[in-house]
Amino acid sequence: MKVMVAVKRVLDYNVKPRVKSDGSGLDLANAKMSMNPFDEIAMEEAVRLKEAGVATEVIAVSCGTAQSQETLRTALAIGADRAILVETNADLQPLAVAKLLRALVEKEAPALILLGKQAIDDDANQTGQMLAALAGLPQATFASKVSVQGERLIVEREVDGGAETLSLPMPAVVTSDLRLNEPRYVTLPNIMKAKKKPLETVSAETLGVDVAPRLQTVGVEEPAARKAGVRVPDVSALLNALRDEAKVL
């Protein structure tokens, strides 16, 4: 059973985003970049499936610039067997990424495709669903537990009303939630081993995929600063202040 995991290079979650002076996007110059946390959870789950003897090979995939090789090396250090980078300088949007992943799915024929439920840079939560639709595969989103029973995939997921358990035929697409697992700490020996693992680079043109943006960013701006709080002497003053703020008679 072959497992493919999509990982994305994003601004590190510990770094405060800075908006460019012209409002065209985020200023990523000299900013620390890392693997999207939800994708890291997906990679951890794939490695656990291999360690349990369920999966035979784990393939890490990323789409983006040459710098994304760093993210793939991290995936290899976590436990992926090999990596594929679809290199492009285009501004990739979820639909373009889904098309690129579909091309790789057709080439590699994995039994399971794992992705993070969303990326923390755009919070789109679209790529997994689009990939499933384009490839005609069953999908399970927001997975909190994944197991394989024979030829079927059992996925537990959280929904508004509680919990839901799905049984899917494979191949299938699954997106990971925070509660799926806790990613392991990457050790120095594994980082050194990752340097010797194969990392293949292909271009979007080679895959025959049009990655031209369909959406245009009109502008990006920082959120408004929070107002300072005020102290009130008693409950009555608090209620009056709340009424004034809400303009309630």
Overview of the structural elements:
Keywords: Electron transport, Transport. It comes from Caballeronia humi. One of its GO terms (molecular function) is electron transfer activity. Its cofactor is AMP. The chain is of the alpha/beta class. The chain is built from 6 helices and 11 strands. It has helices at residues 37-51, 68-78, 94-108, 127-135, 188-194, 235-246, and strands at residues 2-6, 9-11, 33-35, 57-64, 82-87, 112-116, 139-149, 152-159, 162-169, 172-176, 199-203. Helix 3 crosses helix 4. The mean pLDDT is 90.
List the defining traits of the structure above.
alpha/beta, Rossmann fold, 249 residues, two-stranded antiparallel sheet, 11 strands, 27% strand
Give a short overview.
The chain has 249 residues and is α/β, with parallel strands linked by helices. The protein is 28% helix and 27% strand. Strand 8 and strand 9 form a beta hairpin.
CATH C-level: Alpha Beta
What would the principal axes of the Cα set say about the shape? globular
Report, as a whole number of angstroms, the end-to-end distance: 65 Å
Biggest sheet statistics: 9 strands, mixed
Task: Please work out how many helical segments DSSP would assign.
Answer: 6
- Strands side by side in the biggest sheet: 9-8-7-10-6-1-4-5-11
Q: Can you name the CATH architecture? A: 3-Layer(aba) Sandwich
**What is the H-and-E element order?**
EEEHEHEHEHEEEEHEH
GO molecular function: electron transfer activity
Keywords: Electron transport, Transport
Cofactor: AMP
Function: The electron transfer flavoprotein serves as a specific electron acceptor for other dehydrogenases. It transfers the electrons to the main respiratory chain via ETF-ubiquinone oxidoreductase (ETF dehydrogenase).
